[in-house]
Amino acid sequence: MYLKKFPLRGLYSSCFSPQKVQELLRELFMFKPKFTISNLILKYIGVIEGAKEVIDYAVMVPAWEAKFKEEARVRTVHFGTRIEGNELNFSQAQRVLEGQEVIARERDIQEVINYRNVIEHIDRLGERYSLAEAGGGAARYSEVWLKKIHELTTEKILERDKSGQYRQTSVVIKNSQTGEVSFRPPLALEVPTQIEEFFDWLNSDNGKEAHPVLRAGITHYELARIHPFIDGNGRVARAMALLVMLREGYDVKRFFSLEEYFDKHTDDYYQALQMVVKKQGDLTLWLEYFCKALAVELTKIKERVRSLSIDFRWRDRLGRQIALSERQIKIIEYLTEKDRLLVKDARNILTMVSDDTILRDIKDLMDKGVLRKRGKTKAAYYVMRK
What we know:
4 strands
């Protein structure tokens, strides 16, 4: 660290105690991310906060909440590995996570299994060491956590002496299309010092002044920049960023997947990372992109949660909780705008669904006290129960 190289004799002879001198020097030489709180960052943070409030306070049937979380987990694992070149499609990745046999490259299958284990590990850390709940008394972010995440990421992929261990060789990042060197991470001997300095900032009072989403974005970039491991750095960087959000109150019920946005906007993702180098270390453009990604994902989730929370509107009305399928929710959404529903209307909103299934859904809604039938035979229609 810088402290080991700094002449301390003159300072120790001053009015400060040796411990105070060490604290002052640590603060003086601490890693400090360079960025500006731009109008775009403020805009996206506002969108994030608005969506987060809706999602956090939406009351949902437990079955739907569990389904949302599982869907987000699958998307996170699939897109988080695909962006690194994994060739499994979404269906294959889902089957792997369900324990089914998939014919594919062994490494691709192992990467999906490993990243699932990483996400589960992060969930446990987020619950056990929540900063949002424990305040200043929570456990500090640790290099041990970082190395464990890498170990899980690269299990059965890297040799054991390289899994969970900082790299011992220098690496370069090349453009996959041109082969040109686009970035040179720090030398291997600099990795431990730079990681230590970054964690010092992340755990410091100064570091905690930044908004949790910005702290997550900075974590993502710094770990990608330092590139502390021989392989798996992208997945580790995204996983640690997710951990920051989980610990600091931005888990948003774990309904979202930033990895999906990154994968669908891969060129923008890597360009935003590279812009930090072009801007001499200024993180502003990267943080704008990171905040936008989360804002877009949470907005999509917010709209879906709003529709599904219809379940609980009926709990208040009927005095009990009911579970509705997505098809039934579409029927209710239609009736919130229209006075009545004919079977032909249901066919239009539930495409590719048989009449038998439609009639079963409608009958189930009637049995639950949600709908009431008016008229008979072909002239019959359905209305919402008052």
